[in-house]
Amino acid sequence: xxxxxxxxxxxxxxxxxxxxxxxxxxxxxxxxxxxxxxxxxxxxxxxxxxxxxxxxxxxxxxxxxxxxxxxxxxxxxxxxxxxxxxxxxxxxxxxxxxxxxxxxxxxxxxxxxxxxxxxxxxxxxxxxxxxxxxxxxx
Length: 138
Prior knowledge:
The structure is a single chain. Helix content is about 25%, strand content about 35%. The chain contains 3 helices and 10 strands, in the order ββββββααββββα. It has a 5-stranded antiparallel β-sheet with strand order 5-6-7-8-9. A 3-stranded antiparallel β-sheet has the order 2-1-10, covered by helices on one side. The longest helix is centred in the middle third of the chain and has 18 residues, at about 70-85. The radius of gyration is 14 Å and the shape is globular. The relative contact order is 0.22.
């Protein structure tokens, strides 16, 4: 099981993750977190296929325009990841979900590249997401 959790607070966003990488046949502990702070200042975390995540980590994206909302900029990132996956031949067997923090707001980029922002200010991705959300809601 893997999970990445993010919670918006008045002071910023708190993010936590485990170091597990697993599939049907193996379980490994990573020596690095499943997230990165990108050159544009956004935060990107992942859960799912390692190949899809590594490609997303290196995906180039322009800087956010001053007139652009955080949600629109996250959609630009989602589209950049989608196009990079297509260009490199990453198919549906390499699914991953992404958690992105932009301007102190938390967004999820789903495996179909849809962007979601919840109304309650917290979210989680990975196979343990339901347990995390249940704990945060109680």
